Each structure stands twice: as C-alpha cells, then as structure tokens.
Amino acid sequence: MPQRKQITWAQLRVGALVIVSLTIFAIGVFFISGEVAFFSRKYTLKTYFSGAGGLRAGSQARIAGIPVGAVERVRISPYADPARAVEIIMRVPREYQDQVRGDSEATLETAGLLGEAYVNVSRGSPGQPVVPAGGEVKSREEPDIKRIVQNTNDVISNLRVLSAKLNDITTQIQAGQGSIGKLIYDQALYNRLNTTTSSLQQVVSRVEKGEGTIGKLLSDETLYQRTVASIDRLNQVLDDVQRGKGTMAKFLNDPTVYDNVNQLVTRANTLMDNVNKGQGTLGKFATDAQLYNRMNETFDRLNIITTRIEQGQGTLGRLSTDPTLYNNLGDSSQSLREFLTEFKKNPRKYLTIRVRIF
User: Fold this and answer.
1) Which of 91, 96, 83, 110 lies closest to 46 in space, CA to CA?
2) Is 210 left (phi over 0), alpha (psi -120 to 50) or beta?
3) What is the model's pTM?
4) pLDDT in tens, 314-332
5) How far is CA 22 from CA 15, 25, 29, 149, 331, in A?
C-alpha cells in the first residue's frame, strides 16, 4: 500500500512539471509574439477596407508603428460599399484608448516588401474625441505590393519599348541615315566642318595679331581709350541731366515742358474727336461720303486724261508725243534767239521810222 502511494506522487510531480513547463512556454510565446499586455484589460476597435491584403486573425495591431494588440477577426462586412467590403476587428489594451481619436486613421501595411501584413493606427490629435469601445476607426488605403509590382512591370515594359527604339536609332545612325548619322559618317560633311574649322582658326589668328576690325577692336589701345573717353562723356552728360543742366535736363525736369506736352496731347485728342465727329475740314474729309465720291470721280477723270495723254490724244497728248511739234518749237526758239542776237547788234535796223509826204 505505501509503495502504490509513492508511485502516484511521482506521477503528480511529473504532471506538475509538464504543466509548469507548458505555462512557461506559452508565456514565452506571448512575449516573443509581442503580446506583452496579455493580462491587461482590452477593448475592441473595428475598421473597414476594400480588401484584406493578406491580413488574418492574430496579425499585429499597431499604434503609431508600435505593436500593442492583435487582429481578432477578419470577415466580410454587411455593407455594399466596395470600399468597406472587409471588416477588421482589433483588440487593443485600454491603456492606449486615449491615443485613438476621431482623426486617427487605420492602414494596411506589411513588414518589408514580403513580410506579414498588419494594421497600423495613427495617433489622434488631443482636441479630437476618443474612439469608444467597439467604435470605428477611419481607414486609408495604401498601395499594396501587387500594385507596386504591376506599376514596376509597366515601367519595365516602357523601358523595353524605349530600348527597342534606341536600338533602331543607333542602327540608323550606324547606317549613316538621318542628321546624326550623316553628321558622323558623311565624309563630305566632315570635310566641310574641317574647312570651316580651319577658316575659324585663321580668323582667330588674325584677330590675335590685331588684323581686321575685330582685331583692332581688341588690341588697339587708341580705340580702347576712345571708348573709355566716350563712356566718360556719356557719364558726364548723365550727371548734367541729373543736376538739371542742358536742354535734355530741362526737358526731363521742367514741369512747364510737361504741361506743354500734356496740352499738346489734349489738343490732339480734341482734334481727333472732332475729326471722328465730322467737324472741320479734316472731319468732313474723313467722314463725308459725298466728298469721298467726288474725289474718287476726280481721280478717275485724271486717270482718263493721263491715259489719253499717254496715247497721244488731244492737244496735250500731241504736245507730249508728237515730235513734229517739238521740232517746230525748237526751230521757233532758234529763230527767236537769232533775232534777239541780231537785234542786240543793230537795233536801229529794226527801230528806224520812215515818214513819207505825198
């Protein structure tokens, strides 16, 4: 009987050791997984996303990036809104309840590119109300890894297209096609560029030697001194203008000149207004349609007369085109000159008066 009792006590010790070991192991697991507040009071929060994004029950729930709780449940929400298709319920210690407020936002994130997904809740502002137990935290969608990979694939595809185009361009350049290809492989263009470079070198050499206009401009000390003297005179003129000396200074500083110019502009504006209103000679000339028609008819008549003159019609036309009349006028003027010459030599011949008496 005592031997049987001793065996039972040994079994109890082994069982107690196993229970203690399991308890220590469980506590260690909770510590390793971040469940440091396992025995603290907790409350639930919920949020909604368009998709779970690899999230599962037991995933971490963080506040400002610090693990504080866990995701209790991930399920399909009762809402028809696609942006609220998934409901996520989290358990967070009550000691952090004051950190989750009305402007806090929940986001789905991953630990690295391929790490486990978790829910991160941002800290709220002190002026916002605290989200109560069972309350909803606003969510904000972040680009997930699938979208990033898809965008990366698009970028790679675009780079492939760009690379293919660059290969085509380089092939055309190597074949001597296009402007760049001709620039690189065209021997005639190379010779022209070489000739142009040689000419430029000759021009630079002449400039360095002081030859030509540019060479003298750069190397002639006299021209430099004249330029400096001209600049000094210009500065002197500007100083005189600023001091009120000379005509230009009076034109700029004298208010009388300004008043006269202002009056002149006012009179010009008045004159233009009168012309636009049809007042005065210029106004009638600019606005009177009858006067315009008369002048137009006069010009038409003048055109007809000049046309007839060019054609040799009428007295003026024959006078301008008939050489016979021109020759007659020349002969007459020659005879008149001979008469005047002879008259000056012997005026008595033509001024003698003879009186006869019967």
Assistant:
1) 91
2) left
3) 0.36
4) 777 777 677 777 777 777 8
5) 11, 5, 10, 43, 153
